[in-house]
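Thread: "does anyone have the structure for this chain?"

Original post by V.I.:
We have the sequence but no experimental structure in hand. Need at least a predicted one for the grant figures.
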Amino acid sequence: QVLLAESGGDSVQAGGSLSLSCTASGKIYSPNCMAWFRQSQGKEREGVASIDRNAIINYADSVKGRFTLSRDNDKKILYLQMKGLKAEDTATYYCALDSGPWYTPGSGCNYTYWGQGTQVTVSS
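Reply from O.Q.:
Generated one for you, tokens below.
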């Protein structure tokens, strides 16, 4: 069974920093895709940052230059370093994983595993 556990969410002042972690456990196939999504109240879930099977990292325009995605493959941990936080970054942040024994190269990522989320609140 694959489990994703997020941590690091907190309440901070605007301009502050936070670092989120997502620890994956269970049978994880490589290469895989991992990503951070977020959802704020009344809004649809949106992608924040992702790393695909070719280790290419992408960011949402709204977080470029402020957020940094990284991962420790040995420890199966995905990180999201967030700086210059804004009130609009307030949301529940979810970790997601696309991992399986089979995939079609170039087919993109289909996230089938999700964590429970960690709350980030930024006050202005």
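V.I.: this helps a lot. Residues 50 and 58 are 5 Å apart (CA to CA).
O.Q.: and The mean pLDDT is 95.
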